[in-house]
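User: Quick sanity check before I run a bigger batch. Here is a single chain. Can you write out its predicted 3D structure?
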Amino acid sequence: LGRVDDPKHQSQPLEVLSVGSDRGIALIGAPGSGRTSALRALASQHPDALWIPRDPERAWDAVIALVSGRAPRRELVLCDDIDAQINDLPIEYGQHLAQLWEQILRSGGGTTFVVTATRAAGQVGRLLDSLPTRGLLRMPSRVDHLAAGGGPDGYDRDRPPGRLRLGDHELQI
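Assistant: Done. Predicted structure follows.
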């Protein structure tokens, strides 16, 4: 996933995402914070990853295929801007897509999911909560950072793209 800053030990160990074993991670950040680049980096390491299309209709079809079992099982599923995909659909379809995603994320044994979002509010927040790990990239404001689950001391308005707050440490994707 990236290099962790460990100033106490003067080192930068690797932070590894165990694809197929780890349930997944939600990456939340403002536009330009490195969300899509993180997914591209993971996709380059796992060429057989399933990338859910950004187009709402194609995303709908891909999610339906995952739920129904028509899509081949993949160890890594990537979804960029899950909040925008849901919000770009008419409200009843967006709600249904969110329910389908919740079903997938809660029952996806053997699959690692990496999803990105701009904010962790409303129905999207519930989806992101179903993933065990949350990484915070640069957020638009301190309020957004706190609402996404970040601590008061972890907000950095000038956080460079790809710089991630993961639990109590910093990581560069």
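The mean pLDDT is 90.

User: Great, the batch can go ahead then.
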